[in-house]
Amino acid sequence: MVSRTKYKVKFYDTDLMKVIHHSNYIRWFEIGRVELLRKVGVTLEEMMDDGYVFPITEVEAKFHHPGTFDDELIIETTPTALTKVKMEFDYRIIRMDGDKETVLVTGHTQNVYTSMKTGRITRLPEKYMVRFAKAMEE
Known about the structure:
- There is one protein chain.
- Strand 5 and strand 6 (about 100-110) form a beta hairpin.
- The protein starts with a strand and ends with a helix.
- The protein is elongated and about 45 Å long.
- With about 140 residues, it is of the alpha+beta class.
- A five-stranded antiparallel beta sheet has the order 1-4-5-6-3. Strands 2-7 form a two-stranded antiparallel ribbon.
- It has three helices and seven strands; from the N terminus they run βααββββββα.
């Protein structure tokens, strides 16, 4: 499964050089991740209500081309692992120039499921794994 989420670059996303500030790409990875999970029927609120949090343990980003104010972007998110203890995703942030796509940034994140009660890494119940398996099949 690949999820594609549209985003239009705001003025406040840029720096004094009028390019997208690098920190925004990490936020946009999260937007893509949340939207992909939502598409497979998993919300962060549901997981938290069930007592799970999911801190980021790894994040990588490679910057290929700069983006600027008003760019039309696609946040492309692909799950690479949705297991009982972690979720991992690959990302491509793409600028749309008509029909032409320019990859601005590629990246990867890893989250681990953690019990809100104990603060320790834990396993998710089967109710999530069924939905995650469907996402990995697509």
